[in-house]
Amino acid sequence: MLSFIYAAGGPATISPPTLIIDIALMAMLVVVAFAIVRMRSLFAIVMLQGVYSLMCAAWFVTLDAVDVAFTEAAVGAGISTVLMLSAMLLTDRQSAPVGAKKSLGPLLVCVLAGAAMFYAIPDMPAYGDANSPANTGPGMEYMTAAVTDVEIPNIVTAVLASYRGYDTMAETVVIFMAGLGVLLLLGLNGNAGFWQAKVQGQNIFSLTAPRTRILTSTEDKPETEPPAPDEAAPPKPKPKRKPAAAKKRAAKKPAAKKTAAKKPAAKKTGGKGSAS
Amino acid sequence: MAADNTHSAPANPVDIPWDAVLEWGLALASTGLIVSGAIFVLAGALGVLRMPDFFTRMHAAGMTDTLGAEFILLGLMLQAGFSQMTLKLLLVAFFLFLTSPTATHAIANAALKSGLKPQLGPYKAPELSEIEGKTPSEGAH
Amino acid sequence: MADEFLLKVYVAAAVLMMVGMALLLVRLIAGPALYDRALAVNSFGTKVVLFLCLFSLMNGRQDGVDIAILYALMNFIATVAILKFFRYRGLTGPMTSLPGSSKFDRLREARRQKEAS
Amino acid sequence: MNSHLILRTVSKFLIPLIVVYGLYVHFHGDFGPGGGFQAGVIVAAAVVLYALIFGIDACKVAVPPSWIRIGMTVGVMLFAGTGVVTWLLGGAFFDYDVLKYDPDHPAGQHLGIICVELGVLFTVATVMVAIFYAFGSRTPDISDEDW
Asked: Residue A44 is part of a domain; what is its CATH number?
């Protein structure tokens, strides 16, 4: 069956060992995907996602898509796990079970999309087919031109940075905007200050860096803060307080230092020793 | 090669094709290293699956992963020769040698400090009633 | 001749690595405690690194080894993150404090006393 | 104070190596896999490891948040600025050939690609660290029952 998929439309250019490894990796990917869907513990899901991206990258290497594998390795295995965990700090440890009625619609969509994909498989070009549209159109032009135009061995970099410079610039701007959005919503160094809220019956409060966390001057904040109006709404930092906090930062720095000096020496020396 | 040697070096009664000997010797050496490394790695995986409690599993995985990985990488280095590839494989081996025991140590430390007790005494298979009573699918902690 | 033999060895070793991955996957999905899972993830990463090295030697290309180096480093970061999350209930506190003496623990204790009073 | 001595020592040793490997990935991106994006993520991962091991307060001393704000914009400006420079030198936007003329070797292309990828590196690394700072600076109070 799978050899039919690889061979559809032309001679298979894939070697038998690679085919075995591909099939085994895909089978494991399916197993992990089902496990992720079935699990309720979010810790386990984060770990399984790390494993999923590990195997994805290994599979991309067997398919010779090395740059994609590199990105998957860098983002999926390391950073993504850390960011997922840090986002999980603000939510639950267990995912809520979804009723059978609610999952009927998505199931229908998934089944239809999967059936459409299986219907389209015979029209796909064979793996590594030199005459496929992807290999004969602009892609081939880039590959032949890059040898004399750019003269670097990695065609992917040449296409990414030179031929498609506009694309890459827009991607960079997209990443920049994502960072900007995070900065505006959450603040980088505790712009939101010391806040406390009740979300779904759980008390949540933020502890920010010592240079802007001024406990002495904002101790009355938690009492004056109104209770969260909506249970489902995440606690938002008030936009009003941001300029005030920025304005006061210069004035408050001595106060912050004083509070830091008052703290027990154990923590302070730990921070100092590791920083130097 | 062998035919040339018989004519050019008649003093040597037994003609030994040194190139092939070297090639096959290296191949067999690296095969031995890779196979033994793979057996170690596989034994570690089997130990993680079959051992009764967390600390024994950790022992199986930690020890055999380091040894097996170094064996396999050594076997690959023999084949790569003096090239950039060998340097990279050396880096992989070095990083694995540093990070794998450290990670295992951190796991053991976290598990012990959080109150996971090692199973002491001879291993007793759990009773059928105990297995049915528990739901092992979710995290115990 | 020797190369063909070695190719078979590489393929066999790569397949053995995948058998190991499958065994670890069982422990990862079934693992009773979360520490079992963390251990399985770490061991899984080692096996993927070895698999990538074997595969790139099999193809005679260097690219897989680059990714293997990256994995050896990234896997460590992921494991440390998971364990710090378990142990300290947060990602970013200092690891130098004894339990009960950290900033979070003191604040939690103060709030508990406040609620009790 | 001596808790996690092994972890701290190994991390102190590894963090510079991770950064160096990130720079290798960036400057070797012309010849092998990798490029600015991957290098940025690797450099960010080094910062994240530092924050994990030594605490985010120490990390904010080592990599101040003001650097993050500046780095994000510098990356985008470096990328777009390369295009503007080529434009001012008389070529089209992102026509790197005008950056440096060499009759038998496209040196301008190499220079332009490295500059552009450096911009991507700055933006990606700083944005990743920014997201980590933003999420990691908040610590909820988790009671023992919820844990």
From this structure: 1.20.120
Let me know if residue A9 belongs to a domain.
Answer: yes
CB C108 within 8 A of CB D141: yes
Distance CA B129, CA B113 (A): 30
| Structural domain boundaries, residue B35 | 17-115
**Does C69 lie at the interface with D, CB-CB under 8 angstroms?**
yes
Mutate to test the interface with C, among A38, A47, A62 (most CBs of C within 10 A): A47
- On whether residue D144 sits in a domain, the answer given is no
Is the CB of residue A55 less than 8 Å away from at least one CB of chain C?
Answer: yes
Residue B103 within a domain:
yes
Distance in angstroms (rounded) separating the CA atoms of residues D81 and D93:
10
Residue C87 belongs to some domain of the structure: yes
- Closest residue of A to B138, CA-based? A41
B67 within a domain of the structure (yes/no): yes
Number of domains in chain A: 2
Q: What does pLDDT average to in each consecutive run of 10 residues of chain C (117 residues)?
A: 84 90 90 86 92 87 86 89 78 59 64 79
CA distance D3 to C88: 13
Q: Give the domain extent around A230.
A: 196-268
Is residue B5 domain-resident? Answer: no
**Domain coverage including residue D108:** 5-136
Burial B98-137 (b: 16+ CB within 10 A, else e): bbbbbbbbbbbbbbeeeebeeeeeeeeeeeeeeeeeeeee
Cα angle A78, A81, A85 (rounded to 5 degrees) comes to 140
DSSP letters spanning A70-85? HHIIIIIIIIHHHHHH
Residue A205, beta-bridge partner list: A196
Interval D73-106: pLDDT, tens: 999 999 999 989 988 988 888 888 888 877 777 8
